[in-house]
Design a protein that fits this description.
This protein has about 300 residues and is of the alpha/beta class. The protein contains eight helices and twelve strands. The chain has a three-stranded parallel beta sheet, covered by helices on one side.
């Protein structure tokens, strides 16, 4: 089933420069670019380096070079979150003026006894919601949290189906600015997607848990909510998501075999090996979200692992 033409659609791929791209990165990039191009839309690349301390020197350059070698062509300039602190600060001022935010002096150690959500995150108990809690005032560092209400956040993921989350139960008031002054990922990605006009977010299913927070932020800031499609993530033999910490191998120099592996991983219409150009022509023509595996994770091919 071909994708309906939507020339105004805008997709994006947003890697963090913490190391080289691996098979899991390739799956997300391939799904996002095919979804955008198959509908006649635009595809952007954004470097999500808002967490500057985690950025690895040279990683961004390597990521961009790999994308080019593999035949990914993006529209417009590459946006870097490290250059956009003023945009995030403006969004925080808006949230504060609307009464959505408050300062929090809790440390990770303070929250060690907070209950865990199903996703394994600590649920914030609201300790500083009505002012810095007694015993916390000696901590000079302050994070900024966004208030959540009792309402649930519902949306329909294009692959994973209807989703509904109770933020108060599942997350609690969450951080939008870290204690070190850097914008939190949830805020940065919402501001960036809105400013870049992103209409279709295609990414790994490990980010399903972030989506309700991002929708809550979009509503608080009066921003449009894009459509979401969360594709399966690649996992290793122990069930862990592929990453540098879980034996993920950097993408090989030869792009075509890896692209074909990622295409098969996404269960897309078969394509016989040919040239790189032939692969991309087939991928943009044959992309079918209806054929994606409706699961959150799948075993990665052995070629993606460091054995």
């Amino acid at each position: 089933m071909s994708v309906a033409a939507r020339p105004g659609a805008v997709g994006r791929f947003a890697p963090s420069p913490t190391g080289p791209l691996h098979f899991g990165s390739l799956v997300a990039a391939l799904a996002s670019v095919c979804d955008a191009r198959a509908s006649g839309g635009r595809w952007l690349v954004r470097i999500e380096d808002v967490d500057e301390p985690r950025a690895v020197p040279g990683a961004e350059r390597e990521i961009v070079a790999t994308l080019m070698r593999y035949g990914f062509v993006h529209d417009g300039p590459i946006v870097r979150q490290a250059d956009r602190a003023d945009r995030y600060a403006a969004a925080l001022r808006t949230l504060d003026a609307r009464g959505w935010t408050y300062a929090c002096a809790c440390t990770r150690r303070d929250l060690e006894t907070a209950p865990l959500s199903e996703a394994g995150e600590r649920i914030y108990p609201g300790t500083c919601r009505n002012g810095i809690a007694p015993g916390r005032s000696s901590n000079p560092q302050r994070a900024v949290r966004l208030r959540v209400g009792g309402e649930s956040i519902g949306y329909v993921d294009r692959l994973q189906g209807a989703q509904r989350h109770d933020l108060a139960r599942d997350v609690g008031d969450f951080v939008v600015q870290r204690a070190d002054g850097l914008a939190a990922y949830q805020l940065a990605v919402v501001v960036d997607d809105a400013e870049q006009g992103v209409t279709d977010v295609v990414r790994g299913a490990d980010l399903l848990a972030s989506t309700p927070r991002q929708i809550h932020l979009q509503r608080a800031l009066g921003l449009a909510t894009p459509s979401y499609l969360h594709v399966p993530i690649a996992i290793d033999a122990s069930g862990e998501k592929l990453s540098k910490q879980t034996r993920a191998r950097a993408l090989p120099d030869d792009p075509l075999p890896a692209l074909l592996e990622a295409w098969r991983f996404l269960d897309q219409p078969p394509h016989a090996p040919g040239t790189l150009g032939e692969f991309w022509a087939h991928a943009f023509r044959a992309w079918s979200p209806a054929q994606l595996p409706p699961v959150k994770m799948l075993p990665a091919p052995r070629s993606a692992l460091t054995l």
